[in-house]
C-alpha cells in the first residue's frame, strides 16, 4: 500500500502572521492549537488528506525544557530556526500505521533522526465537543546535520472529525500535488527516499521522483528547479544541499487558475505565471514557495 503525504511543517515566527498570510492567499485556517511541549500550530486542511502545519514556539521555556529532555520534534525545530531563521519549510511528514516499526527501519538504514515521540493533546470538534488526540512520530534524516528533516505520523487513536468546512478554500485548492526538494545530486538520495516512503524512486528529467498515494515527492537540482518554476533558489538552500535535501516548494491542485488569479489580484498578494502555473514567492507566515497547477494539467 502506497504511503500518503500527511503534512508539511512550516516554521513561522508568529501564528498570527501565518494566519493573515494564508487567509490572503484564499485558504481557510483552523483555530490555533497548542502542543504540550511549547509549540503551537494553525493548520490548513485539504480534501485529499494532506495539510499544512504552520508552527510557532508559543512557550519558549517549555520548548527549551522539552528539547533538553530529548523531544526530537522540538529540538529539530530549534535547529532549523538556528540555521535558516524563523520562517521556512522544515519537515515532510508521511502517514503511518506503525511508527515504532518505522523507527526500527530508519535505525537499520542508518537514517534515524532521533528517538520516537508520543504525545496527546485536546482536540475540539466543529460541534464544540472535545476529545483527546494521540500521536506517535518516527524521525528520519538523510544526513544528521541537515536542518530539513522527515518523519512519519501515526494517529494512535484516530478521531472521527468532520473537516468539510475547513476544506472549502476560496482559492479552490483540493490538495497538495507535489513536494519539491533541492539537492545538488538528487540521485544520492534515492536510497533514503525509497526507505522513508516505502516506494520506488524514479529518475526523471528534473531529478528523482517518488509517487505517494495522494502526492509526489520530487528532488531536483537548483538549475532544474529554476528552469521549471522560474525562481532562483535561495543561497542558503543551495549551500545545504551537500548535507541533505532542502524542502523549498509545495505544489497545490486547483480546478481552475482563474478563480485563484482573481483572488490573488484582489488581495494584492504578489504572484507571477509561468508555464501554465501560478507561482507565489515566499513571505512571512508562508514558509515555502507556493505553486498552483490545474488538476487537469
From TrEMBL:
InterPro entries associated with the record: Glyas_Bleomycin-R_OHBP_Dase, Glyoxalase-like_dom
Residue ranges of domain Glyoxalase-like in the record: 5-194
Pfam families linked to this entry: Glyoxalase_3
Name of the protein in its database record: Glyoxalase-like domain-containing protein
Organism, as annotated: Nitratireductor indicus C115
Phylogenetic placement of the source organism: Bacteria, Pseudomonadati, Pseudomonadota, Alphaproteobacteria, Hyphomicrobiales
Amino acid at each position: 500500500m502506497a504511503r500518503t503525504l500527511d503534512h508539511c511543517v512550516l516554521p513561522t515566527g508568529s501564528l498570527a502572521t501565518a494566519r493573515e498570510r494564508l487567509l490572503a492567499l484564499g485558504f481557510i485556517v483552523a483555530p490555533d492549537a497548542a502542543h504540550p511541549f511549547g509549540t503551537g500550530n494553525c493548520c490548513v486542511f485539504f480534501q485529499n488528506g494532506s495539510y499544512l502545519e504552520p508552527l510557532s514556539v508559543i512557550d519558549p521555556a517549555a520548548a527549551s525544557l522539552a528539547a533538553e529532555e530529548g523531544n526530537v520534534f522540538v529540538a529539530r525545530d530549534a535547529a532549523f530556526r538556528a540555521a535558516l531563521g524563523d520562517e521556512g519549510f522544515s519537515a515532510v511528514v508521511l502517514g503511518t500505521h506503525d511508527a515504532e516499526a518505522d523507527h526500527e527501519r530508519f535505525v537499520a538504514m542508518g537514517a534515524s533522526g532521533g528517538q520516537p515521540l508520543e504525545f496527546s493533546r485536546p482536540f475540539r470538534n466543529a460541534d464544540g465537543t472535545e476529545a483527546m488526540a494521540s500521536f506517535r512520530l518516527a524521525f528520519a534524516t538523510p544526513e544528521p546535520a541537515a536542518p530539513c528533516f522527515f518523519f512519519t505520523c501515526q494517529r494512535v487513536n484516530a478521531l472521527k472529525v468532520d473537516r468539510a468546512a475547513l476544506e472549502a478554500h476560496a482559492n479552490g485548492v483540493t490538495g497538495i500535488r507535489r513536494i519539491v526538494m533541492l539537492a545538488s545530486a538528487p540521485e544520492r538520495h534515492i536510497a533514503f527516499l525509497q526507505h522513508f516512503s516505502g516506494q520506488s524512486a524514479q529518475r526523471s528529467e528534473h531529478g528523482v521522483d517518488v509517487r505517494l498515494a495522494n502526492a509526489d515527492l520530487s528532488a531536483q537540482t537548483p538549475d532544474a528547479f529554476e528552469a521549471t518554476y522560474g525562481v532562483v533558489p535561495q543561497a542558503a538552500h543551495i549551500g545545504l544541499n551537500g548535507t541533505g535535501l532542502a524542502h523549498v516548494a509545495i505544489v497545490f491542485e486547483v480546478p481552475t487558475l482563474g478563480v485563484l488569479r482573481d483572488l490573488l489580484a484582489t488581495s494584492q498578494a504578489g504572484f507571477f505565471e509561468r508555464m501554465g502555473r501560478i507561482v507565489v514567492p515566499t513571505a512571512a507566515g508562508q514558509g515555502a514557495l507556493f505553486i498552483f497547477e490545474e488538476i487537469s494539467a
